[in-house]
Design goal:
single chain, 333 residues, alpha/beta, Glutaredoxin, Serine Threonine Protein Phosphatase 5, Tetratricopeptide repeat, 3 domains, 5-stranded mixed beta sheet, 56% helix, elongated
Length: 333
Amino acid sequence: MVSLVDPTGRPLKTAAREPAAAKAAPSQPAQARGAAPSGGAQAPIKDATLASFAADVLDASVETPVIVDFWAPWCGPCKQLTPLLERLVTEAKGAVRLVKVNIDDNPEIAQQLRIQSVPTVYAFRNGQPVDGFMGAIPESQLRQFVQGLLGPGGEDIGAETEDALAMAAEALARHDLSTAAQIFGQILQEDPGNPKAVAGLARCYLESGDIERAKQTLGLVRPDGAADESIRAVQAELSLKERAAAAGDLAPLRNKIEANPGDLQARFDLALALDAKAAREEAIEQLLEIVRRDRKWNEDAARKQLVTLFEAMGPADPRTIAARRRLSSLLFS
């Protein structure tokens, strides 16, 4: 087991090293030996000091793998990594713990464990470091790191959330807005700010016609999920809905274009009106026709509107793929 010493040079005691008589002495509170208070299990995420490190990390890792995040307030990458670690440990539901050590406040720990830069992350099991890395890494690699601590029989982190998101998406696809909203809401209770759940709930409001509630819901996304593809898609859909509110009736616009096919403003207005009527494919056709006739018209308005449509539909949507191909052909022909 790893040994640490206090500022006086004395070894920090752990529960594993204490004499049996000392552990059994009724006069010594359990908390003094690093055990959890009698009220319940140890918190899965906590801050540690030199005085608590042995109990929070070395002793605790005998029962449950412990990830130690060495960080500093001035460290930029730490501000990206720590929230991801916290989220993944929360998703693990007690199967792994996270202990955070501020090296500015606890230089003795950093020196004794030879921490040379931050962020540095160690994983402890049975009082010994078993894995680790330095620097910020992508979420996919971080998820693999945490999953590796759980072993082949461990629960797949996030699997329940992914299953719930899939169920909610299916309900939304069949326009069962009540069921979809309920599932998305339950996910957000377990995982606040989850970008896909936020986007899904916002889309429920959007499809019900409540644009304001959809906007408010998007504000619930956590900072590291604001750029998620699902969030951007709903934001694009919101933009389309707002522009569609000012769109005119179809018949007068069609008449204008029939009388003057070169009236690109009328054609653009028709595209907005068509999209408002859920005729997105025909709206795309009108926008592509504008690009074909004058790709720079109105400061690239048609191309920009197409890009918004692509974001709303998503990159994997067959309509996006086909229209992108045609747009590229027009722009680079």
